[in-house]
Design a protein that fits this description.
By secondary structure, this protein is mostly helical. It is 42% helix and 5% strand. Among the domains are: 208 residues, Serine Threonine Protein Phosphatase 5, Tetratricopeptide repeat (Alpha Horseshoe), CATH 1.25.40.390; 68 residues, no CATH class. The chain has 18 helices and six strands.
Amino acid sequence: MKKIFLSIALVAITVSCNDFLDIKEEGVIVGTDFFKTENDAMEATNAIYSFLRSYDNSAFPYQFVFGVPADDVVKGSNPGDASFINEYDNFTYTVSNDGVKGYWIGQWQAVNRTNQVITKVPDIEMNAALKERLVAEAKMLRAYFYFNLIRIYGGVPIFDGLQSDYKKPRNSVEEVYNFIISDLTAAAAVLPQSYDAANKGRVTKGAALGMLSKVYLYKKDWQKAFDTSNQVMGLGYSLDPDFNHVFRPSGEFGSESVFEVNCDCSAQFGGSQYAEVQGVRNQFGWGFFTPSQALEDAFEPGDIRKELTILRNGETTPEGDLIAMGDPQSVTTFNQKVYVPTALNNNACGYGSIQNIRIMRFAEILLINAEAANELGNTSVATTNLNRVRNRASLAGTTATNQATLRTAIWHERRVELALEGDRFVDLVRTGQAGNVLAPYGFKVGKNEVFPIPLDAMNESNGMFTQNPGY
């Protein structure tokens, strides 16, 4: 497997790899002639965005923790290829696993980039409005990285700015959530609702509020989740009437896009491997992280999303590509949401490098609003927004008639609507279903809700860290 490394615009920032965060300050963190100009501020902020499309954030390590542990995703490829990934499917990973460590290090590298901008850009003499916006972008993205960390590892240290000593105890889950909420609230107050074509992919007010509504959902703060998702619903988003179009290049940054990573192939950033690692093996990619039989069985009869989510050997896509039968030892189904038609592929950056990463779609906002409304006892609103998502999938309205059955219906809708988009495992944990659903795979209640803190991080914390239970 070939791993490409994206070039980073922020070449003037230097960091050490000796600390558990990979962001240790050794006297000088930033080049002395950097963070002096408006262009420096823009490059530093762009370096945060470059991480969103990086291998560590969107290819293998991401799938190890958000994808494979769910019942909807299997390792993929053939049995002998990267068989170590099975440890994430059967919950036998340990404190020493590279994936556990790799995702941890990557997220902290990203946090460091955001803190560089938040700390250094305010001192630059430049356009005041742009300065305020770039800091807001960095806060929104810092919140996103912390949201990833807390869902995978539990409470983690809070670093608000640059420090001389990064060895400190883990903050509580509640403290980290409050920090995330503070960043998202501050960002939403500043960020614009949209950008011009040259700035597509920069985070918006809708992205900050959308992520904030999701954070409240995880906290079970139903009123705030409901109110905040209502704010997003008032910003002009709408469901794309064509589910297939949402995930094709022509659907990028469409009416449904709330938070989307721009992965355009360019000389500076070199695209992304998000699609390549999941693409049809030996035709479009490596064939990893593929749909399970359990996911196939989850779709209701008549749900158009089933065939637009699962790409099969031997089928012809709506765009005219014949999917080869492939290696008989390999899996035969793949993630269609990452498929890039042959005619649109940019070979300069490898297969699928132009495929944007959809982090949050308006469909999820509707489901957040529906879940929160239902928990507040407003089954009418919950049913309306649930049915908006179902009807787009050519399904009739839900038959659920009370809070309990509607709750189950909304959870199910999240599964099939957001299939293979990285939400299933953390949703099972969030809703308390993981113990039952994932028990056959080896999931242990009281342990596998979170991953272990990597062994290197434990050792380098000088005893300040307490390991997660069971590890």
